[in-house]
Fold:
Amino acid sequence: MSRPRVTSAEMFRWSAAAACGVAAVGAAAAVLWAVRGVLVLVLVSLFVAVSLDPAVRWLVRHRVRRPYAVTAILVLVLAGAAVLSAGVGPPLARQAGDLVKDLPGYIAGLDERSPVFGELSARYGLGDRLNELASSVPEWIAVNLLSLFQTFLDGLATTVTVVVVSLYFLADLPRLRRRAQLMAPDRHRERVRRIVDTAVDKVGSYMIGNVVVSLIAGAVAYAGLVVLDIPFALPLALIVAVTDLIPLVGATLGMAVCGLVAAMAVGLWPAAVAIVVWLLVYQQVENYWIVPRVMRRSLDMPSLAVLLAGLIGAALLGLIGALMAIPVAATAKAVLAELRTPLPPPGHIPAQTAADPELAGVLDE
Structure:
């Protein structure tokens, strides 16, 4: 049997439909690329909202209505930021300025304080190179002061935008979770509910736990720096707290910065060695005692997967991407495990959903 012959009119219609499809896909890709910055802000805002949701749900479980719970969490976060800025901001700015101003002098005196460094400096010119780098820092800051101020304003505007959008997400998160469940077919709604709950729990517990662990790391570093009488204790402790947010390698990076500054400002022995040993001992306590207790339910991943996820996230969105990538990867692992479980019988209503005080008001919508 011969196939029906394709007429030129049909060929034209197929070609036009294919061309329109390609053009539509290209236009959609162009629009997404044009608004990629807004999409990143929305994604980060959703991530922040999900991170704060466990605290809001804790208040809801204690009979606080969700709008008031969200307001209370916002007030606590803003009050904490204000207290931290007022208490830490002035000495942090002063010590950071002193570090930039005094760094060339510290580097110049390394030859006298460390014979090893003096030998390396004489052989490889290491001291001269460090002096050139340190002396160029104040000049670079003065030249780029306007751009630094512009960067600060851009960061402030981005932060305000993320906070506002996060509040909207946080206030409406139960309804969004329910809408995601209702979009699935009836037989799959229970599975979708478990997947959404797993994602929210993984992200929230990981982020809150990670912030708690980082604050502990910063406090321990500050105590060691003060006891050892190492200057610039506050900015160095802040560096340790921020780098500790980075999985696996962040704590080592913060320790290296503290050891390097201590070696230049005070000397290799005993200050630099002591602060490195102090932070190294704390890392073991953090890895084997603090983290398993603070984040026991948030991650169930091998170290290599955590490292790869963090590196990929950092390559895409920097520090924020590294923070987001770990719980997202853990959520993906949990979702794959959920997809391998059998579906519940038809008509099954989970007791957890029916008893959830936040979802009870939207179950019948």
